[in-house]
UniProtKB/TrEMBL annotation:
The UniProt record lists the keyword Zinc: yes
Protein name: tRNA-specific adenosine deaminase
Binding residues for Zn(2+): 58, 88, 91
Gene it is expressed from: tadA
Signal peptide: none
Record-level Gene Ontology MF annotations: tRNA-specific adenosine-34 deaminase activity
Cofactor note: Binds 1 zinc ion per subunit.
Quaternary data: Homodimer.
Coiled-coil regions listed in the entry: none
Family from the record: Belongs to the cytidine and deoxycytidylate deaminase family. ADAT2 subfamily.
Amino acid sequence: MQNEYLKHQKWMNHALKLAQVAGDAGEVPVGAVVIDPSGNLIGEGENRKERDKDPTAHAEVIAIRSAAQSLQSWRLDQCSLYVTLEPCPMCAGAIVHARLATLVYGVDDTKTGAIRTVINIPSSPASNHRLQVVGGILESACRQQLQDWFTTRRHQHK
């Protein structure tokens, strides 16, 4: 169990670094990584909506696309996704469609969380895939990063 938690911390720290890159670029600071069953990084992403002018350019979607390209398969059924913020409905749908085995996230999203906070897409009757979900990994660090970014943005726009 301790080994599993240390693994989760390692990859969430990597996702936090990606989130920092996004935040520094003016994006909401969210980062995501996909890990294969052997523990190798096969995909990563950070929010890029503003930079790419693309409403689907969420960290999770970018990481999933990258992993699918790495594996040359859309089926990521043996892989784990780590993301700093609970996925939204679009990203939860992508997670289900990619058949990810595990989702690990940092902090709940009380506004649009679609894994267990507002709605639960993976457990919905509309979902054709079930996955393991682990929430709260490095929760304080993930929350603080988001709060700091939004506080700075509010002060800049006064």
